[in-house]
Write a structure and sequence with these properties.
With 189 residues, the protein is mainly alpha-helical. It contains ten helices and no strands. Helix 6 crosses helix 7. The longest helix has 21 residues. It binds fe (ii) ion (2 copies). The site of one fe (ii) ion (FE2) has 6 residues, from loops.
Length: 189
């Protein structure tokens, strides 16, 4: 599948603004892939599909999480905003025959992160966070750092995310803490 085909499959599933976001994530992810030596075609497909399930009905996603053994059940204890990553990867596999494990895991973890992230997972996670349409406190610093050190960029993005969620008193999925701790150790924090 090339990028054009991926866009044709993704576009009907997203609102127009979300599709524009998706295209910016693809562009940003390709820049990171070029800088850090990831496969460009895989990067394009993973980024194009990363929000595939963003607008799936919450009850439908809940049913998939309950039914599919590969999907972690603890997702149900956390905000449904997190579900579109893992459920999206599952749906991209069964509805579009995308079997590449690197692509599927990048979709799965694009919102939460997790420990021992692969290069492609880091790229899609960070591209989603820093694409040019994003504007929130600290994003410019993460953009700058991401060009110099991918791990440092992920660390800052995770730290900001955790701080933001905690400031609002929200729950935090454990994989996000695992990712944060992993990068903090890696960077000798
Ligand atoms: Fe997303
Ligand atoms: Fe996204």
């Amino acid at each position: 599948m090339n990028l054009e085909e991926a866009y044709e499959r993704v576009k009907p599933k997203l609102k127009p603004a979300r599709f524009e976001h998706t295209k910016r994530v693809v562009e940003t992810a390709v820049e990171l892939a070029e800088a850090y030596g990831e496969d460009i075609e895989k990067t394009k497909i993973a980024a194009a599909f990363h929000d595939y399930a963003k607008y799936r009905d919450v009850e439908e996603m809940k049913r998939w999480i309950i039914k599919e053994t590969a999907l972690p059940k603890d997702l149900l204890l956390y905000h449904h905003e997190l579900w579109h990553g893992p459920v999206g990867a599952y749906l991209v596999r069964v509805e579009h025959d995308v079997m590449d494990i690197d692509i599927l895991s990048a979709i799965t973890y694009h919102t939460t992160g997790h420990a021992n992230m692969t290069l492609l997972e880091k790229i899609v996670f960070l591209a989603d966070y820093i694409e040019p349409g994003r504007s929130f406190p600290g994003v410019d610093e993460v953009r700058k750092v991401a060009k110099e050190d991918l791990n440092q960029g992920c660390y800052l993005a995770l730290r900001n995310t955790i701080q933001f969620l905690m400031s609002k008193g929200q729950t935090i999925y454990p994989d996000t803490f695992h990712a944060y701790n992993d990068f903090a150790r890696l960077l000798n924090k």
